[in-house]
Amino acid sequence: MNNSSQLQGGKVWLVGAGPGDPDLLTIKAARLIAQADAIVYDHLVGNGIMDLARSDARVIYAGKESSKHTMPQGDINQLLVTLAREGLSVVRLKGGDPFIFGRGGEELETLVASGIPFEVVPGVTAAAGCAAYSGFPLTHRDHAQAVTFVTGHLKDGTVNLDWPALARPNQTVVFYMGIGAAEEICKQMINHGLPSMTPAAVIRNGTQADQKTVLATLGTLPHRLTESGIKPPALIVVGSVVGLHEKLSWFEKR
Ligand code: SAH
């Protein structure tokens, strides 16, 4: 890979870094990271990925652990504009896919308003990465005809979701940012008709060396979470595909 910058300056690339394992970067993401003049990256960008950056690149951490926002969103938006106006090639690097619970859209709106050119590079979203590395085929034909990605953390702090839709049978539901609300999520799914025996799992640090999968049911998940002391970032997966983990898991068995 060529390490000298060949990128056009004054432009921003909004890039998905995937769920953690650097090998899950797209070739385009790896090339852009290696060439950018400036990189603004998030908390969820996996270990090892920033090592690809040029040694003379301007590297800025924009933070965002749940509830510990290092840099307010408005400042991040403005920073991208400022760096691009300096004539730099700027990579805005986000965990997973930038358009899936990544606030990438908001950053692009500021760029558009400021007349800054941009491109978007998709990444492997956490649900796809965790499902692959935990052995849950999200839409296995015998189990699920649909998969829903939903946030367990709403802007106003509530988890006021469309529970009747989420509790329908024959689907897989993946909750992002749901650890803090796990008890409420499980209670609502049961109250809206799913059996408390429905398989459910939590995957922490999916695709990374320390990935951990905790298997449970809707009824036992809150207790299993407390017991295992799991902290974010983690996904909650609900549906009978979780039952395939025993047969199909490979990563945690290495
Ligand atoms: N844009 C990201 C999601 C950002 S929201 C994507 O497409 O994946 C942040 C949430 O994503 C976390 O709270 C967690 O629920 C989930 N997440 C991100 N990376 C993860 C990982 N490696 N393992 C488990 N969950 C992860």
CATH topology term of the largest domain: Methyltransferase, Cobalt-precorrin-4 Transmethylase, Domain 2
Q: Can you tell me the overall shape? A: elongated
Identify low-pLDDT runs.
none
Q: Count structural domains.
A: 2
Under the CATH scheme, the architecture of the largest domain is 2-Layer Sandwich
Order of helices and strands: EHEEHEHEHEHEHEEHEH
Largest sheet: 5 strands, parallel
Measured by DSSP, the beta-strand proportion falls in: 15-25%
Q: Strand order across the biggest sheet?
A: 3-2-4-1-5
How would you name the CATH homologous superfamily of the largest domain? Answer: Tetrapyrrole methylase, C-terminal domain
Give me the oligomer status. single chain
The average pLDDT score comes to: 93
Bound molecules: S-adenosyl-L-homocysteine
Helix fraction bin: 25-40%
**So what's the CATH class of the largest domain?**
Alpha Beta
Radius of gyration: 19 Å
How many E strands?
A: 10
Task: Report the total helices.
Answer: 8
User: Which structural class fits the helix and strand makeup?
Assistant: alpha/beta
Distance between the termini: 30 Å
